[in-house]
Write a structure and sequence with these properties.
Belongs to the class I-like SAM-binding methyltransferase superfamily. RsmB/NOP family. GO terms for molecular function: methyltransferase activity. This is Ribosomal RNA small subunit methyltransferase F. With 522 residues, the protein is α+β, with helices and mostly antiparallel strands. The protein contains 16 helices and 27 strands. Helix content is 26%, strand content 25%. Strands 5, 6, 7, 8, 9, 10, 11, 14, 15 and 20 form a ten-stranded mixed β-sheet that branches. Strands 16-17-18-19-21-22 form a six-stranded mixed β-sheet. β25 and β26 form a beta hairpin. The structure holds S-adenosylmethionine (SAM). S-adenosylmethionine binds next to α6 and α10.
Length: 522
């Protein structure tokens, strides 16, 4: 066998799985599975199937997910750079499918980086409601913010916080909470051998302490009648059924909802917690009863020897309280029917939000964090002028100013006071050298019909790739589509096969490339 499993892991799995162990072990001989998930914020599944560069085989537990041949390099196609799909391990698509996200919900993704599940949640929200996406790792939130932007999400806030500090600001606030918990990663050994080295470095107890804390803190943020999905990519019952059993014991107002039978979910292994004579050693924790431990058979497991995917665990925790009519986010912010990214942390290095002051201009809600002495009216005038000249209409929502940067946010900014905010919303642009420059995420969040000037580049003959590499392109004027009264000169929304990639500036047959250097195709 090519893969060297840690002996302690293999011995434990053999003990737990008994007769099934040989089959489990044989799964490590098979190649890993690769998947993509269609981003329905950009394209519906049927339309994507019609233009897909890859053969697609449906993933049973995710309507928008497909197995693809990894050797075809799905990350090297202009459609990937246009955010039409996200590359995601097939089993990792399961937790969001059982979170039951509906447009308009307030959703928290607490351990979110690099953002696979957050972009899946965003697609289910369809631009309505709120996604707060968080990770404790500052480094990993960079990838998280980028993936949110690449996917064209307009209603997300990206945080880099501890769950405890978020709970302090958002008690009983969220309808849905996803905890894709940090774990020992045993289910990912086949996908990523580095996970084996990581496994050897940390004790199980370190993980279980973190998992317990995160779950208990998350529960404080759930609104009555809401739902938490707890998932891991590990097999150890200590990190899975035992965490859920203990939570249920301490929180009688929660039930575990059984998973749908279709799709390949195997039941949770309550039997690993409960033996004929009572609780197994593993779970002789104070207060835990056999009845509660037995409920964990309603959790779900994806086994690499039973499904085409890696190992995962998931539990749907439904709060039994009556859902209260919460204030709709759209009521908190006038006109929030379209609400989302950027490059500037909105907090200082200590995570302190600079004291905001609000002011209204016309029908608009404007908030400002006074980081830099940029003149507010200059910023607003810049944004007004840009939108008049380049957009069919101004996107609605609360305009927030951070120094010289403009965002549209799905929440009133005082909700974020004191939190280390990586993106307070959709990054619109900034005033540089006295001029408003549109942000790249403004382009990735726009629909082609919202721009005044568009240019469609060919996907087939390498033209879109040239743009993605940052090249200047020669583009004759008839290829630029524009609003007659505004002319062809100026910022152009550049597309690949009809899907926005970024900005360019067209003048006299030349398209100056505005694709950000850090995003370029290499
Ligand atoms: C399994 S990964 C998340 C993968 C992600 N959900 C996705 O689908 O792309 C777990 C994440 O939890 C983060 N993490 C670890 N401890 C945390 C904590 N106490 N609070 C929030 N995030 C934490 C890690 O930095 C890591 O990015």
């Amino acid at each position: 066998m090519g893969l060297q499993l840690p002996i302690a892991f293999a011995t434990r799995m053999q003990l737990l799985l008994g007769d099934e162990y040989e089959e489990f072990l044989a799964s490590y001989e098979k190649p890993r599975y690769a998947g993509i998930r269609v981003n329905t914020l950009k394209i519906d599944v049927e339309s994507f199937r019609a233009i897909s560069p890859f053969e697609l085989k449906p993933i049973p537990w995710c309507e928008t997910g497909f197995y693809v041949e990894e050797s075809l390099k799905p990350g090297k196609h202009p459609y990937y750079h246009a955010g039409l799909y996200y590359i995601q391990e097939p089993s990792a698509m399961a937790p969001v499918e059982v979170l039951d996200v509906n447009p308009g919900d307030r959703v928290l993704d607490l351990c979110a980086a690099p953002g696979g599940k957050s972009t899946q949640i965003a697609a289910k929200l369809r631009g309505q409601g709120l996604l707060v996406t968080n990770d404790i790792s500052a480094e990993r939130t960079k990838a998280l913010a980028k993936n949110i932007e690449l996917s064209g999400v307009r209603n997300a806030i990206v945080l880099n916080e501890t769950p405890e500090r978020i709970a302090g600001r958002f008690p009983q606030f969220f309808d849905r909470i996803l905890i894709d918990a940090p774990c020992s990663g045993e289910g990912m050994f086949r996908k990523d051998e580095d996970m084996i080295r990581q496994w050897e470095k940390r004790s199980l107890e370190q993980y279980t302490n973190m998992q317990r804390d995160i779950l208990h803190t998350a529960a404080r943020m759930l609104s009555p009648g809401g739902r938490i999905v707890y998932s891991t990519c590990t097999f150890a019952p200590e990190e899975n059924e035992a965490i859920i059993a203990e939570f249920l014991q301490q929180n009688e107002d929660y039930e575990v909802i059984p998973l749908p039978v279709e799709g390949g979910f195997a039941p949770g292994r309550a039997d690993w917690l409960v033996q004929a004579e009572g609780l197994a050693d593993l779970d002789k924790r104070q207060g835990l009863t056999v009845d509660t431990a037995a409920k964990t058979d309603r959790c779900g497991r994806l086994w690499p020897h039973r499904v085409d995917g890696e190992g995962h665990f998931l539990a749907v925790l439904q709060h039994q309280g009556q859902a209260e009519a919460t204030l709709d986010i759209a009521e908190m912010i006038p006109c929030l029917d379209r609400v989302n990214s950027g490059h500037h942390e909105a907090t200082d290095k200590k995570g302190k939000m600079k004291q905001p002051h609000r002011r209204s201009k016309g029908s608009r809600n404007v908030s400002k964090y006074s980081t830099a002495p940029t003149d507010i009216s200059e910023l607003l005038a810049g944004w007004d002028k840009f939108s008049d000249e380049h957009l069919q209409s101004k996107p609605a929502g609360e305009v927030m100013l951070f120094g010289s940067h403009v965002y549209i946010s799905p929440l009133p900014k005082d909700r974020l006071d004191g939190l280390k905010t990586i993106r307070p919303g959709w990054y619109i642009g900034a005033v540089k050298h006295g001029r408003f420059s549109p942000g790249h995420p403004l382009a990735t969040g726009l629909k082609p019909e919202e721009a005044v000037r568009v240019l469609d580049l060919s996907v087939q003959d390498g033209e879109a790739v040239k743009y993605l590499k940052g090249e200047t392109l020669e583009i004759p004027q008839p290829r630029v589509q524009f609003k007659e009264e505004l002319g062809p000169k100026g910022y152009v929304l550049v597309m690949a096969g009809g899907f926005p990639l970024g900005w360019g500036k067209w003048m006299d047959g030349i398209l100056k490339n505005e694709y950000p250097a850090g995003w370029r195709w290499t």
